[in-house]
Amino acid sequence: MPSRKADTFRWDPLVRITHWGVVFCCAANLWFDEAGEDLHEQLGYLVIALIAVRWLWGLSFADKYARLASLWPTRAELVQQRKEMSERLPPAPGHHGTGKLAVWALWLTILATAGTGWLQTTEQGIDWSADDWHEWCTWALQGLIALHLSAVVYTSWRQRSNLVKRMLPGHLSR
Questions:
Q1: From CA 16, how far away is CA 154, in angstroms rounded?
Q2: C-alpha closest to that of 98 among 137, 49, 151
Q3: Neighbours of 112 (CB within 10 A)
């Protein structure tokens, strides 16, 4: 039986495209363009569309690890992750238990950020202090992004496997 060290798991092309599209939209809106500009609003709508495409893919044609049903962590997966991390075993294909939690936290925070951004443009949004909620969501999102990047670096080091490589363009293999 081949070792998991030799596993060359990569996410499927649609998962990678939507991932990097979301990264681009979030980075542009958080750090490069100005709130209130047309581009800011259009990127907000685009990120909603990208997450919707990813969810539809995960509900329909996605492979095993990219299916939405496989992104619900179990207690056993969290225990297995702790064992793999402590023993420095190479990561299994897909996400760890805490990685699955992170996926949902990021998706929902991004959607909350985009939703509160849209709400700012409505009369109801003014009554509900959408400006404050939107700003809070952007800070929460930046914190989650920092945590995500730190976890990828730490896990890659701890398990001696380049997790970033799984999301980069290249030949799809399992």
A1: 21
A2: 151
A3: 17
- Find out whether 114 and 137 touch, Cβ atoms under 8 Å: no
Between CA 59 and CA 68 the distance in angstroms is 6
Global confidence as pTM: 0.90
The tens digit of pLDDT for each residue in 82-131 reads 999 999 998 889 999 999 999 999 999 999 999 999 998 887 877 778 99
What distance in Å separates the CA atoms of residue 158 and residue 29, rounded to the nearest whole number?
32
How many of the other CB atoms lie within 10 Å of CB of 57?
Answer: 19
Distance of CA 37 to the CA centre of its chain: 25
> Six-digit token pair at 11?
């996410």
Question: Up-side HSE of residue 60: CA atoms within 13 Å toward CB?
Answer: 8
Asked whether 84 and 159 are in contact (CB, 8 A), the reply is yes
List the alpha helices (DSSP H) in the chain: 13-27, 38-59, 75-86, 97-119, 123-127, 130-158
Nearest to 69 by CA among 80, 56, 53, 58: 58
SS3 108: helix
